[in-house]
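Re: weekly structure request thread

Next one in the queue (86 aa):
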Amino acid sequence: MLYEFYGEECPHCQKMLKLTEKLMKEFPDVKIIRKEVWHNKENMDLVKEFDGDDSCGGLPFYYDTETKKWLCGEVKYKELVEWAGK
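Done, posted below.
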């Protein structure tokens, strides 16, 4: 499963949400589960589980449960596509 964790008011997250939407439109087989964390403790706990050693420590945070690969912060579209396995 591919996850995108974001904060509702985070400007970096808002920029990346647009790239995530573009990715899912360009590759319809890619499904990314979006989780808002600033207003949802359960979602924040999930981030802490996936980023156990606090390697990222911020948002947005992307995590692939199959490959265990993650991305942190704003990244270029090409990097997001590669993370998604495309």
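The helical segments are 11-26, 41-50, 77-83. The longest strand covers residues 2-6.
Next request, please.
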